[in-house]
Amino acid sequence: MVTKKVLHWLGYTSAFKRLILEAISQF
Questions:
Q1: Which domain holds residue 19?
Q2: What does the pLDDT read at residue 14?
Q3: Which one, of 19, 14, 12, lies nearest residue 4 by Cα?
Q4: What's in the keyword line of the UniProt record (predicted)?
Q5: Which residues of the chain, if any, have pLDDT below 70?
Q6: C-alpha dihedral (4, 10, 13, 19), degrees to nearest 10
Q7: Given this model, what pLDDT does residue 18 score?
């Protein structure tokens, strides 16, 4: 299903963004 793929991708990118933000806040 396409919608399921998009939701999974959005969840992956949001987690990746949070990881980057956490890494930036450490500096």
A1: 1-27
A2: 96
A3: 12
A4: Plasmid
A5: none
A6: -110
A7: 96
The reported pLDDT for the residue numbered 27 is 79
For residues 10 and 7, give the distance between their C-alpha atoms in angstroms, rounded to a whole number. Answer: 5
- State the Cα–Cα distance between residues 6 and 25, nearest whole angstrom: 28
**Structure token pair of residue 6:** 């998009």
* Alpha helix positions (H), 1-27: 2-26
Q: What is the pTM of this model?
A: 0.51
Length of the chain equals 27
